[in-house]
Amino acid sequence: MDTTPFTVDEALMARHRTMWATGDYPRVAREVVAPLGEVLVDALDVCSGEQVLDIAAGTGNAAAAAARRGADVTASDLTPELLAAGRAAFGDVSLTWDEANAEDLPYDDDSFDVTMSCIGVMFAPHHQRAADEMLRVARPGGRIGVVSWTPDGTIGQLFATMKPYVAAPPAGASPPPLWGDAAHVATLLGDRVHDVTVRRGTLVVDHFADAAAFADYFTRHYGPTIVARRANADDPERLAALDADLVALGEREGRRGQRGFTMGWDHLAVTATVS
């Protein structure tokens, strides 16, 4: 584990917190990506009585799934607005909700039987630091698990589409979809884990009527897309180009069939036992 002193970039964290509070990510979590919580909990085989930490939990889809199995679950996230939405959505589930930075978790070493993150920790800017923290708070013999969007899947390509329209990331930050690359995750975890299992899956999404509806949904509800559009608000040509690129992405990724317009959003699940 890297022992170099780490200083939290508070300004960067504040921007991330604001981005995820922008728009209506709780709606996205509820209407589109909710099934991924069960995917992660199933992959980890969470059991009753286990101490579980959901890192970058958002509104708590995975945390709630684990709690319903009888686990003692803490859902942590950088953005208080998402935690508040999670409390409202899962008021019937016994959960602890903590505001916490995935790169600087407020928990002791070896505190949890399971540490996990469902399309959450991938957005922490410093991947190695986030992975180190996930491992630090997990007990030896415990399990870690992540589900992440893949670089070549729909959401990975969404970020590739937006990249030319946003400012370059700060030094040391890595693209979120790299967490969806098995080799990258293996490098982050190193020899601190064993019994690593990698599963690639696809979330079938039939929520949108067509490619234009897909693009419109993200421009209205998804914080990173809203921030990208705001960055180009003073340049109508660039803004129109971004909007057109989002529709083109939907056209490339979508298919028409018996279920209407559907998309397959690829994700990678990685689970491992802590050495």
Could you characterize what this model shows?
InterPro entries: Methyltransf_11, SAM-dependent_MTases_sf. It comes from Nocardioides jishulii. Residues 53-144 form the Methyltransferase type domain. Keywords: Methyltransferase, Transferase. This protein is α/β, with parallel strands linked by helices. The chain has one domain: Rossmann fold (3-Layer(aba) Sandwich), CATH 3.40.50. It has helices spanning 10-21, 25-33, 35-44, 61-67, 80-89, 127-136, 154-162, 182-189, 211-221, 223-231, 236-253; strands at residues 51-54, 72-77, 96-99, 112-118, 138-149, 193-205, 254-257, 260-274. Strands 1, 2, 3, 4, 5, 6, 7 and 8 form an eight-stranded mixed β-sheet that branches. The mean pLDDT is 97.
Uncertain regions: pLDDT < 50 for 5+ in a row? none
Within CATH, the superfamily carries the name Vaccinia Virus protein VP39
Sheet-strand content, in percent, reads: 15-25%
CATH classification, class level: Alpha Beta
Give the CATH topology: Rossmann fold
Radius of gyration: 18 Å
Features:
275 residues; alpha/beta; 8-stranded mixed β-sheet; 24% strand; 41% helix; 11 helices; Rossmann fold
